[in-house]
Design goal:
With 297 residues, the protein is α+β, with helices and mostly antiparallel strands. The protein has 8 helices and 12 strands.
Length: 297
């Protein structure tokens, strides 16, 4: 039986180095992890419920990696040998990591969720299946704005309240299982608007100076950046606002020097997926979200 060793919560740069060797030439597939790691290195000291680890086999090969930022689900990579998930779970339990859920490639996320629920005595359920998309500048399909439309970058204090309200409504609609709150939405908005190096923010499509759609961006990777959320309130949908805003936002981000743009799209939302595909985004991989809940007494 192959022996595995878990290296967890040591120097973050060591983790990044081993992750980079494991995920070489797979920036799109692991863009979420890249963005979170580099953000942690830039801005945040170690916090109690953060976690990072890689798992090696007896020959020193990295089988897979895992990462968690405070208050969020665990993000895991693919694992070339699924039996390496056992030692990872043992380490998480030993460190008292109470996980709300896991996000990872299909079907590794389900294998982890099943094993975790058995060991932790909880239940698990699939809450979302997403497609990772990637866009490069040469694939971008531009869309002209209409005469009464303009795209601005949300920066003023006057945008915070209504923007937080939109983020709250987006999370309620797209991710009901997370228990959206206005407090969390405001924290997200403030965090992006106050990012010191300008690598996070929101683009807003306005019609005669009134907001109609928003695209957020954050968490740069090695060569790219991820956009999220993409949201248009229901009363203004089906008018092409999101499609034109996504295309214009990507054009501006490429103009800032990013070479790739990534996003995650719910597979149950065909309208959104169609917008991204028409803009030039190509699918990379499917990933699944699983939620852990206490078993009934």
């Amino acid at each position: 039986m192959m022996a595995f060793h878990v290296y967890a919560c040591g120097p973050l740069d060591d983790f990044i180095q081993h992750f980079a060797s494991f995920a070489a030439h797979q920036e799109a597939r692991y863009n979420l992890m890249w963005g979170l790691m580099l953000r942690m290195r830039r801005f945040r000291p170690r916090q109690p419920d953060s976690y990072w680890a890689w798992v090696e086999n007896g020959e020193g090969k990295v089988e897979g990696v895992a990462l968690r930022t405070p208050g969020n689900q665990l993000v895991i990579s693919d694992f070339s040998d699924v039996s390496a998930l056992g030692p990872l779970i043992d380490d998480l339990v030993r460190r008292n990591q109470g996980l709300p859920g896991v996000l990872g490639p299909t079907p590794i996320a389900e294998i982890f969720a099943s094993a975790w629920s058995s060991g932790a005595g909880c239940q698990f359920s699939l809450t979302m299946r997403e497609t990772i998309y990637e866009l490069t500048a040469e694939k971008l399909v531009s869309r002209d704005l209409k005469e009464n439309e303009r795209v601005i970058e949300a920066r003023s204090e006057s945008t915070r309240d209504w923007l937080a309200g939109w983020i709250y409504e987006f999370e309620r609609e797209a991710m009901p299982e997370v228990g959206a709150t206005m407090e969390h939405a405001m924290q997200l908005v403030n965090g992006r608007l106050n990012t010191p190096d300008g690598c996070a923010g929101f683009y807003v499509l306005e019609v005669e100076d009134q907001p109609r759609s928003v695209v957020g961006y954050a968490n740069p990777t090695l060569t790219g950046i991820r956009i999220a959320p993409v949201y248009t309130p229901s009363k203004w949908r089906n008018q092409g606002y999101a499609g034109r805003l996504v295309a214009e936002s990507c054009r501006r981000l490429f103009g800032q020097g990013y070479h790739r743009i990534f996003l995650f799209a719910d597979k149950k939302n065909p309208e959104a997926n169609a917008i991204y595909q028409k803009t030039g985004f190509a699918s990379v991989e499917e990933v699944d979200h699983y939620q852990f809940v206490a078993s009934p007494a």
